[in-house]
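User: I'm curious whether this sequence folds into something compact or stays loose and floppy. Could you predict its structure so I can see for myself?
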Amino acid sequence: MKHLRWLPLAAALLLAPLLSLAAGTAAVVDRIVAIVNDSVILQSELEQATLMAQSEMRQRGISPPAQAVLRTQVLERLILLKLQTQRAKEAGVKVEDRELNEVLANIAAQNKLSVAEFAQQVKAEGLDYISLREEIREQVLVQRVRQKEVASRIVVTDQDVDQYLAASGADDPNEFRLSHILVAVTEAGNPELREKARLKAESLLKRLRAGEDFAQLAVAESDGQQALQGGDLGWRKAASLPTAFSAVVPRLAIGQVSDVIEAPNGYNIIRLADKRSVGQRQTIVETHARHILLSTNTIRNEDATRAQAFELYDRLRKGDDFVALAKKYSDDPGSKMSGGDLNWQPAGSFAPEFQERIDALEPGQMTQPFHSQFGWHIARVEGRRTRDITEEARRARARQAIQQRKEGEEYEVWLRRLREEAYVEYRMASEQADSGAPAMFPARATAAP
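Assistant: Here's the prediction. I'll summarize afterward.
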């Protein structure tokens, strides 16, 4: 059976596992395993989330840890997901059915299926499609509230970019793939807790250096957001990494594990899983074009619009000035007053029908009238050039890297604040106590008897 690929969606929504309820699973008498503010997490949710986490680990080649350890990790992720969806509702963030249908259509297309075929495949794999829809809605909510509460508030200035480019290694053409283990410190000002966390991190490092598998240890012990993915942080430019890592990563050999790295969020251990080089010099081909656009309106129907377009084309062929006709007749408000001038634009800037026509022209040549979604066009290519955009691309990559780094750091702070301000009551106290498993941000959590 062909297994569905969730990862195209997860690239944007790596905030929680898909928590699909399995059809045909043995019936469970549900009970509450955690209270999160005014919501609850049920045992059935936890069980299904744990099954999904185990499946993902096996796909990554990671042996899942003991059941109690994994359940504790998964429960913490469910708590964070619940807190973020609660915050989304407070902030008025919504995902309408129409938007959700578009997301599901994209997932189906990425699996080379229609939506109906996708729904059938979900059911064939023993999953409930309606439950899956709502869980994907939650994840879209989380992504949007992150954008609203964190990403939209990040400002990257030109000075930030200048400093980034001037810094050591800022123009490093390499990208790094890292694995990460975090021992979190929830109360930064508490020396006793910090020392306890440091000792745990040192102990984990010794276990790694003695040969234990990094991914399995991350799943079992890390407080990081990617713990259930074996600590995999994916590919990143050096300067898009957390500040505490940027000086360490370039000095690591592939497969090498770092010493313990102290940071405000706690104690970190990283492993360089892989390294690759990205392109150096970049150029783009740009086209300078003009056009006249005629659109239908209340006094000119489609046939009349087409007829006028061919009339103007005939005048242009006989020598009338393109700029003058564009200023007088064009319906494009953006270019009308400049004589239809579209300036220098790289390939892909225009609608496909328009781009295809101008790409086929040499400088000085003009199209016959043609139709697009906007109306009838006559286009002329004024020139074409190849431009070196290495410096622009360099600054754009720098800006993106700074944005990612700042957003990642602010997101961790924001999550920690949500967690510390929340009321969380565990109903799995004995299992947690027996497991010795980590709990992300345990401050202000209450274990019920």
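Summary: Confidence is low (pLDDT under 50) at residues 5-28, 430-449. The chain has 15 helices and twelve strands.
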